């Protein structure tokens, strides 16, 4: 199954906005970072099923800024395969670590990233209070960002 997952560099990033909106519900926020870093479409058996966008805070650190897989393909282990490919891709480029942030209300995401090898690195209090509309998941308001880090070296 790992061979059937490919990360393909994206040319027209705006074409992938529907996927980006799966992970970040606010289009205005996405527009702030959509043209930063490197974006890849996630291909499974030659069909686009998602997107991942990586930004760089330094030459040695990459952030998984947006990562989404169509809900009909979730729960099959494909996300974990994508993350493993991303680890290898950036390790081969000489990057030392990867970070990712998610909301305190994103319980499934927090479990996913920890199972993928990330560890809690920081908490940014009130990060999501700057969003234009409150975000709720499973009855929990998104207020704080939980940042995870994975050493690649």
UniProtKB/TrEMBL annotation:
The keyword Transferase applies. SUPFAM superfamilies: Acyl-CoA N-acyltransferases (Nat) (SSF55729). PROSITE patterns: GNAT. The keyword Transcription regulation does not apply. Gene3D superfamilies: 3.40.630.30. Keywords: Acyltransferase, Transferase. Residues 1-150 form the N-acetyltransferase domain. It comes from the Bacteria. CDD domains: NAT_SF. This is GNAT family N-acetyltransferase. It comes from Halobacillus amylolyticus. The lineage of its organism: Bacteria, Bacillati, Bacillota, Bacilli, Bacillales.
């Amino acid at each position: 199954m790992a061979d059937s997952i490919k990360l393909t560099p994206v040319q027209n990033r705006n074409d992938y906005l529907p996927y980006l909106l799966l992970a970040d519900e606010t289009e205005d926020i996405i527009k702030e970072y959509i043209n930063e870093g490197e974006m890849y479409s996630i291909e499974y058996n030659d069909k686009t099923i998602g997107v991942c966008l990586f930004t760089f805070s330094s030459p040695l650190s990459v952030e998984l800024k947006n990562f989404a897989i169509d809900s009909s393909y979730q729960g099959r282990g494909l996300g974990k395969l994508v993350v493993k490919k991303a680890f290898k891709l950036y390790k081969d480029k000489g990057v030392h670590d990867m970070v990712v942030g998610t909301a305190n209300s994103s319980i499934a995401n927090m479990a996913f990233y920890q199972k993928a090898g990330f560890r809690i690195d920081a908490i940014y209090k009130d990060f999501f209070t700057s969003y234009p509309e409150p975000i709720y998941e499973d009855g929990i308001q998104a207020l704080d960002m939980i940042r995870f880090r994975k050493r690649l070296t």
